[in-house]
Amino acid sequence: MNCCDFSRSRRRLMLAGGTFCVAVLADASAAADAPEDRLRKLLSDRRSLKLVRGDELLEATYWTAAGGYNRDEYLSICWLLRDLQADRVFPMNHDLLDVLCGVQTWLARNGINAPLRIHSGYRTPKTNQRTEGAALDSRHVVGRAVDISVRGVSNVRLAGMASALGRGGTGLYPGRNFVHVDTGDERIWIDRPRKKA
Fold first, then answer.
1. Structure confidence by residue, pLDDT tens digits, 3-57
2. Does 132 fall in a domain?
3. Can you tell me the distance from the alpha carbon of 58 to that of 103, in angstroms, rounded to the nearest whole number?
4. I want to staple 139 with a disulfide (CB 3.0 to 4.6 A). Which of 9, 40, 144, 163 is the partner?
5. Tell me, what's the pLDDT at 9?
6. Beta bridge partners of 150
7. Helix H segments across the chain?
8. Is 196 a domain residue?
9. Dist CA 42 CA 188 (whole Å)
């Protein structure tokens, strides 16, 4: 994908999500064009996540302006994002957590306080090989990707937000009930719906 194709894809995804993109940009200041600037404004005081995975619910503040990173809270997040099949924990990328926090902070400012539902976090190489449709060089294997959804928020909207605030890739999977967010190379994709057998 060349530069122009990438820009068109990102614009299409942002437009598909509707007016929330305008609100994200306005909320983070019209002068701040880069995702890094948008995130910095959204996350200037504290960085907290409310996550749910199966029966596990976690609320953790992993960084504050006054105290910096909180190791125990960060490790709690890594535990929730572990590879469930292999029962393995991995240090998750801080930039990835910041993107998730930015999405959740914007949602909360707009009256949506639902937790981010985690469908997949870290994966061991063996788990990744067994995962249908997973890339061989998946960012999940290095703690730089998650698959998420939010109750009451369409995946198109969620993908647009992640792309507007992101530091890497955003994948939309129609019919599979999640959005992929990572901190790899900047790219956007929309997976074709799978045919029913």
1. 455 455 555 555 555 444 444 444 444 444 576 787 888 898 999 999 999 999 9
2. yes
3. 16
4. 144
5. 53
6. 153
7. 3-16, 20-27, 35-42, 71-80, 94-109, 125-130, 155-165
8. no
9. 23
Can you tell me the distance from the alpha carbon of 110 to that of 34, in angstroms, rounded to the nearest whole number?
A: 21
Does the residue 195 lie in any domain?
Answer: no
**What percent of the chain is modeled with pLDDT above 70?**
80
89: domain CATH number is 3.30.1380
Spatial distance between the Cα atoms of 93 and 87, rounded to a whole number of angstroms: 19
Domain containing residue 90: 3-190
CB hemisphere CA count around 60 (13 angstroms): 24
Q: How far, in Å, CA of 174 to CA of 7, rounded?
A: 21
Q: Which amino acid is at 60?
A: A
pLDDT for the residue 18 = 45
Instruction: Count structural domains, the chain.
Output: 1
> Whole-model pTM?
0.82
In-domain check, residue 197: no
